[in-house]
Structures are given as C-alpha cells and as structure tokens.
Specification:
Layout (H helix, E strand, L loop, with lengths): L1 H17 L3 H12 L4 H8 L5 H41 L18 H14 L4 E2 L5 E3 H4 L19 E3 L2 E3 L5 H9 L4 E10 L11 E11 L4 H16 L5 E8 L2 E10 L16 E10 L1 H6 L8 E8 H9 L6 H4 L2 H4 L3
Parallel strand pairs: 1-5
Antiparallel strand pairs: 2-4, 3-4, 5-6, 6-10, 7-8, 8-9, 9-10
The structure holds 3,4-dihydroxyphenylalanine.
The site of 3,4-dihydroxyphenylalanine (DAH) has 11 residues, from strand 9 and strand 10.
Length: about 350
C-alpha cells in the first residue's frame, strides 16, 4: 500500500507540472483527491488493515495528501497567473496606435445651418440675439401683445395650456414683450426659438417648430424701414435675384400688418408645383408694432415706435433646400441629415 501511495504521488506530481489550464487542473484534482480519486480509494481501502498498520498508513497517506494539496495550490497559482497574462495580452490596447482615418465628421442640422444664416444676415444689419423661455406666461404670449383673454384672434393659435396663466409659447413674439420691458431702446433684436401648437403631425404641421422674431425699436420708424430690412434679409438668405412683395394682413400685435411673399425659388416666378402656379411663396409675417403693445410693455408710443417680423425657420429651410415634409426636420434620421 505504501508503495502504491508513493507511486501515485510520483506520477501525479509529474503530471501536475505539465498542466497549463484551469480545466486540466480541475481534472487532475478530481482524479486524485476527488471522491473517487486514486488517493481517496487508498484511504478507503485502509478499513481492512490492523490498528497499527492503519495508524502508520494513515500518517503517510495524510502526508501525501498534504503534499499533493500544497503542490496543487502552487500550480494553480502559476496557472492562474499565466492565464491572466494571456488574457491581458489578448485584450491589450495600444493607446499609441493612430486612429482610423475615415472617422465620419458630424455636421450641423439643416435647421441650425439656416438659423445661423438668418442670424448672420441680421447681425450684419446691426441686430443682436435675444432669448426667452419656452414656457411662458399667458400674459406675455397674448395679453401684452394686444390679445386680451376674450380676443377672437387667440383662436388663430391652438395653445398648449399648462395652467390658466402659463402656456407653451405659441410664437416667439412674447420675447418682444420681455425685450421691451427690460432693454433700453433703441435696439434691434433677432430672437430664435422653439414654439408649440396643438397640431396633428403631418407633412406641413408639427406641434413643435422653430421661429425667429425680428424686432427693431427706435424713433420715427416707418413702414419703409420694415420693407427695406425684410427685403434685405430675404435677399441675404435666398439670393439677390429674389423679389419680395408685401400683402396687407392682420396680426393683433402690429398695425399695419403684412404678409411677405418672395418670388418662387424653384421656378423663379414662372409658376410651378411648389408655388402652386402663382410664382410666389409666402415667407413671413410682419408689421409696425401696435402702440398698444408698446404701452403694455411700458414704452411711450409717442416717443418710440417699432417694427417686427416673425419667420418660420423650418419654412425657410424647406424652401431653401426643397424639403417637402416638415417631419424630416424634426425626426433626426441620419440618412436625411447626411445630405446637408
Ligand atoms: N407671431 C406670428 C405667428 O406666429 C408671426 C409674426 C407676425 C410675428 C407678425 C411678428 C409680426 O413679429 O410682426 O404667426
């Protein structure tokens, strides 16, 4: 028995030294020290021995067992270390390696591009930018703009109400009130922003879209100033060959009010599908600021007057790039955005 103990020890230790992975280690352990392993069977076989023999055998067997366990632990530590090293090698990243060269560059959203073009055209005419909140008081969105609570023109804009006094602004015009109440005139402002209306989404409607408001406050402003500024701004964005025309219209916050058309950018004014055969495209609303609005905002209309205009930035982008569906401008589909 002693002999076979030594035999097992010798063979198993030789084998142990050749093992290089966890699975083989496990197998080795089970085959010698496991429940039906070779050493375990020997220990079981001791039952038939005399008391003295058993004591002596037990001692040797325990020594062998201890040594095998110890050598196993040693080998396991080595194998673990080796396997970790291999993994590190395999997963290593060379941080000094140069990047792939064809990294796709991001680009500006067409709305942002068009907004910046409009803004730059206006900044070139002495405008500065101004900002207001998207969540707005009913008072600023309507009442101060000459649209009291019972005014029928409130229905022109389907409003998201947060509560009786607070709305999602339906246009950028409430920023006019904020500017008039806080800034020292004279000033010229370009006021961009998202606006909100209760609208079913379709090719030409979106419950959120982007407007830009222009506001010029000074002394002795005439409709001619408005016409000149708006025409120059349209020419700066769409090109000098584009013609403009002003049609009388109605907005509560301006008097007189006008809607502005520009000659169709697709057919040049001959008439086509986009301009529905008229040769003209409606582009913005404008007017001489209603004295009531100035008064409501603390300015004396005898001393100061103003003109204003409001343009849909997405509408400008649609016309400029021939985008027939407004949804494309708000869906952020990379295939669409890549084209700009
Ligand atoms: N606020 C108007 C709208 O959303 C657009 C507008 C028209 C703005 C005339 C103006 C203006 O400043 O003078 O439909």
């Amino acid at each position: 028995m002693i002999h076979s103990l030594e035999e097992i020890k010798k063979n198993m230790l030789i084998k142990l030294d050749t093992i290089e992975n966890g699975a083989e280690l496990e197998e080795w352990y089970v085959s010698v020290l496991g429940r039906s392993g070779s050493l375990t069977s020997i220990l079981r076989g001791m039952a038939g021995l005399s008391k003295e023999e058993r004591a002596a055998m037990g001692k040797s067997a325990n020594l062998v067992k201890q040594e095998l366990e110890a050598r196993f632990a040693e080998r396991k530590a080595k194998v673990d270390e080796y396997m970790q090293e291999m993994r590190f090698k395999k997963e290593a990243i060379d941080v000094t390696e140069p990047g792939k060269r064809d990294v796709p560059l991001g680009r500006l959203h067409p709305l942002t591009q068009v907004y910046r073009e409009i803004r730059d055209a206006l900044v070139g005419m002495g405008f500065t930018t101004f900002d207001g909140p998207e969540i707005e008081y009913d008072d600023y969105n309507f009442t101060k703009l000459n649209l009291p609570k019972d005014h029928p023109a409130r229905d022109m804009q389907d409003t998201f109400y947060i509560n009786e006094n607070v709305v999602l602004r339906t246009h950028t015009t409430p920023c006019e009130a904020r500017a008039l109440m806080t800034l020292e005139p004279p000033f010229r402002l370009a006021i961009p922003g998202r606006v909100f209306r209760v609208d079913e989404v379709d090719a030409s409607h979106s419950p959120v879209f982007m407007q830009l408001e222009g506001l010029v406050v000074d002394k002795n402003i005439s409709f001619g100033d408005l016409k000149g500024t708006v025409s120059a701004f349209i020419n700066a964005v769409f090109g000098s060959e584009v013609k403009t025309r002003f049609r009388p219209s109605y907005f509560p916050f301006t008097e007189p009010s006008a809607e502005v058309d520009m000659s169709c950018t697709i057919c040049g004014g001959k008439g086509c599908r986009v301009c529905k055969g008229t040769g003209w495209l409606e582009i913005l609303g404008c007017g001489i600021t209603n004295p009531h609005e100035l008064e409501n905002c603390g300015l004396d209309p005898k001393e100061w007057n103003a003109f204003a205009f409001g343009v849909g930035v997405d509408r400008v982008a649609s016309l400029k790039y021939g985008i027939s569906d407004i949804r494309l401008q708000y869906e952020n589909d990379a295939r669409f955005l890549k084209q700009f």
